Amino acid sequence: MSWWxxxxxxxxxxxxxxxxxxxxxxQVYPFAGIVMVMFGFAIDNTSLMERIAPGLVVLATMxxxxxxxxxxxxxxxxxxxxxxxxxxxxxxxxxxxxxSIALAVQLAVLEAILVLxxxxxxxxxxxxxGVILLLLTWVAAPGVxxxxxxxxxxxxxxxxxxxxxxxCSCCQSWRQx
Length: 177
What we know:
Blueprint: H1 3-21, H2 23-43, H3 46-78, H4 81-87, H5 92-122, H6 128-140, H7 142-158, E1 165-167, E2 174-176
Antiparallel strand pairs: 1-2
Helix pairs in contact: 1-5, 2-3, 2-5, 3-5, 3-7, 5-7
């Protein structure tokens, strides 16, 4: 089995586990919503709220990302699935990138929900140029992927998953964390 197909299988399996368990639906999305509501109560200035709403969406996303990553690896270690994958010979890089891709999909859904929530709670407006910029930033910006990749790597290391690899953005070589 090739590295890419293994990575896709792991991502697909993680998304299927999430779909069946609905942890994000029952825990993470309400947590993110509560964070957005608490920011609204804390700031309580309508004109300021409209200006800083994108930053609040980013903060709520980062807080929720921690819960998503922790839960993703907790599911693996509860029943010994992570050890079984390593015993079966699944490469740690395929495991790392498969989990990163699955978490990226979950994070994209979460961000879409949070943007809609910012429009409803804070009265923000969405311009078409802003949507295009958001999509381009999400795809191209290392600032979006860096916390996701680093938190996935930290969870994998904490759970005993070996040293994952990443591709260096400056020289395009593969390195270990």
